[in-house]
Amino acid sequence: MKEVLIIDDEPKAIELLSNYVNRLPWLKCVGTYRNPLEALAFLQNHPVDLLLLDIHMPQISGVEFYRALPDKPKVIFTTAYSEYAVASYELEALDYLVKPITFERFLQACSRCKEAPVSANASIENNPSAQEIFIKSGPKLYRLNWEEVLFLEKSENYVVFHTQDRKILSRQNMQDVQEILPDFFCKIHKSYIISLRHLNVVERHQVSIGKHEIPIGQSYRPAFFKLLSERWGQDKVFDAV
Predict the structure, then answer these.
(1) Which pLDDT does position 237 carry in this prediction?
(2) The domain boundary residue, chosen from 100, 115, 130
(3) Residue 85 structural domain
(4) Is residue 223 in some structural domain?
(5) β strands within 9-139, DSSP E
């Protein structure tokens, strides 16, 4: 989970960005400030992973503010003006968003923040705002609830999200997706991650989910059956290892 601080002198901009952050399961908003000097005091004791930083502010520009930080987190600049783009690139910003900011553009920018490891133990299940995710497939964004997902399949440079009635093909890295999954998902093969909530039949070398038969990789088998034993009791899981 990446901790995010929002700095913008416009209340409506803060409201919009906070809403966008809450819709992404790998981000957590830890504070919002309209006064960048107050934000500076916060950052001295509470380092964050990402700044959403407005450039055009009355006390100090976002560019000047970021240059003054001794420990610089990753930053995405936001502004209603386009003339600061060069400065933002010089500061190696993740992105530069010109207002009004759409959710699709925001998602594109924040996806770059996922390069650093995300906690695999982050519980999406216990965070209502993280039950859903937007999956980018080509030019479209698909809204998906994790409960709908039967399993995920790696296909070359893509991940296929399988549900009861559709397949969504997204150009993503399987490892990045795995890091934001709820804890009821389990990797059982180098190319497959399954939802335990849709598991129908377990055999030694494969499982069945609906009409799909999915192989269990040999190296994943011990951990998978151990997980089944822990969840449903040793007496309820046959010794298939």
Answers:
(1) 54
(2) 115
(3) 2-115
(4) yes
(5) 27-33, 50-54, 74-79, 95-98, 132-137
Q: Are 157 and 61 part of one and the same domain?
A: no
Tokens of 158: 């893509």
Contact criterion met (CB below 8 Å) for 50 and 27: yes
For residue 130, being part of any structural domain is answered with no
> What is the four-CA torsion angle of 9, 12, 15, 17, rounded to 10 degrees?
-70
In this structure, the answer to whether residues 55 and 98 fall within a common structural domain is: yes
Out of 115, 130, 165, pick the residue that ends a domain. 115
Residues of the chain with pLDDT under 70: 82-90, 114-131, 232-241
**Residue 117's pLDDT is what?**
37
Same domain? 155 vs 103: no
For the record, the structure tokens of 15 come out as 């409201």
Report the candidate in 31, 94, 101 with the shortest Cα–Cα distance to residue 66.
94
Give me the number of domains the chain comprises.
2
Q: Which of 184, 229, 236, 187 is nearest to 207 (CA)?
A: 187
Q: Token pair for residue 18?
A: 């906070």
Contact 74, 86 (CB under 8 A): no
- With beta carbons less than 8 A apart as the criterion, state whether 25 and 51 touch: no
Check residue 204 and give its pLDDT: 87
The edge-to-edge listing of strands for the beta sheet with 201-202 is 201-202, 206-209, 212-215
**What tokens appear for 47 in the block?**
């380092």
- 187 and 86 co-located in one domain: no
State residue 236's pLDDT score: 52
Q: Which residue has the tokens 């133990």?
A: 121
Q: Tell me, what's the pLDDT at 168? A: 92
